[in-house]
Amino acid sequence: MVESSPRRAIAIWLFVVCALVFAMVVLGGVTRLTRSGLSIVEWQPLLGAIPPLNEAQWLALFEKYKLTPEYQKVNLGMDLAGFQGIFWLEYFHRLLGRLIGLAFALPFVYFLVRGKIGRALASKLWLLFALGAAQGLLGWLMVASGLVDVPRVSPYRLTAHLGLAILIYAATLWIALGLLASKPQAADSTVGLRRFGLAVTGLIFCMILSGGFVAGTHAGFAFNDWPYMHGRLVPEGLYALEPWWVNLFENIATVQFNHRLVAYLLCLVIPIYWLTARRHRLEARTRSLFHLLLAMLALQVTLGIATLLYVVPVSLAAAHQAGALLLLTLALLLNHRLRSRESS
Predict the structure, then answer these.
(1) Burial class (CB in 10 A: 0-12, 13-18, 19+), 172
(2) Which of 141, 133, 166, 163 lies closest to 37, judged by CA?
(3) What are phi and psi of 232, to 5 degrees?
(4) How far apart are CA 268 and CA 198, in angstroms?
């Protein structure tokens, strides 16, 4: 059992880790959008923290990049200055990953040594540590998939990498919120609302995963009209690939169409969730969170449409990715409040 006095300190530490993971997800999106992710062709967890320090080291890295399919098929003729431009984005992306590891591990060791973390909480934090290590390995496996033959990473590995990052973020946030909350005392009258909230949260997670496949297949650069797709509500070639299930993950038309469908479903479900909540006696702060969730949905849909119509500019696409994470954050906050505070 964690004593009440260090609970707040541990929660603040975990909130800081959440903020870093949030930044990591957004920076990862920028790295992908600028085609910077394949600029570093080696995985060196320790030595990789040191950037090139002289021209000879820069040239050595550039020569390794020239052997990749991305250089040969996409960036042929790029000069050293151009390479440095994409290198630094990927470097800072990896550096932020290392910073997150240290930001988690060092306070974790400190709290463990001081005996401030009980057995139950320690088990959860060890699991987070394991997931973080797996995320680093998965990130490299994702990059490695783009260094052979095709100059882009596997959409399956990219989506798995994104999904695991979101899972780590959500789990860290949930644990931190639990440390600040009192013992759960939710009333029976909110059971249905809480279940509804879990469904909404799951649907948002599915939307993020479908967005991962949109990113991995570059589907956002096709069908740049709305509400139609090349003038049709249902695009041609929706299930042109065999076997049929491959279309769900690799067919550009199907991938974008499904992402739109999940967004439309959220546009139906979240307003119903909001209306359902109005029939319950909820605290003012909880009601405010419901309003924010509805407003964030409107903003996120607007960002998504604008990103599509303007053919995926980096600024709009990064904001759209951040918006998805904010939408998930609000859903998680609501789930936690409904679970631990509400009364009829």
Answers:
(1) buried
(2) 141
(3) -125, 145
(4) 16
Which residues, 6+ apart, have CB-to-CB distance to 242 below 8 Å? none
b/e per residue 303-320 (b: at least 16 CB within 10 A): bbbebbeeebeeebbbbb
Q: For residue 243, is the peptide bond before it cis, meaning its omega torsion is within 30 degrees of 0?
A: yes
Q: Beta-carbon neighbour count of residue 103 at 10 Å?
A: 17
What is the rounded distance in angstroms from the CA atom of residue 66 to the CA atom of residue 76? 8
pLDDT tens per residue across span 131-186: 999 999 999 899 888 888 888 889 999 999 999 999 999 999 999 999 987 665 55
Taking the whole predicted model, whether its pTM rises above 0.85 is answered as: yes
CB atoms within 10 A of CB 163: 16
> For 14, what's the count of Cα atoms within 13 Å in the CB-facing half-sphere?
27
Query: Which residues neighbour 309 within 8 Å (Cβ) at sequence distance 6 or greater?
Result: 224, 225, 226
3-state SS, one letter per residue, for the chain: CCCHHHHHHHHHHHHHHHHHHHHHHHHHHHHHHCCCCCCCCCCCCCHHHCCCCCHHHHHHHHHHHHCCHHHHHCCCCCCHHHHHHHHHHHHHHHHHHHHHHHHHHHHHHHHHHCCCCCHHHHHHHHHHHHHHHHHHHHHHHHHHHCCCCCCCCCHHHHHHHHHHHHHHHHHHHHHHHHHHCCCCCCCHHHHHHHHHHHHHHHHHHHHHHHHHHHHHHCHHHCCCCCCCECCECCCCCCCCCCCHHHHHHHCHHHHHHHHHHHHHHHHHHHHHHHHHHCCCCCCHHHHHHHHHHHHHHHHHHHHHHHHHHCCCCHHHHHHHHHHHHHHHHHHHHHHHHHHHCCCC
Please state, in angstroms and rounded to a whole number, the distance separating the CA atoms of residues 177 and 175: 5
Residue with tokens 């409107």: 298
Tokens of 85: 């431009």
pLDDT tens per residue, range 100-132: 999 999 999 999 999 899 999 999 999 999 999
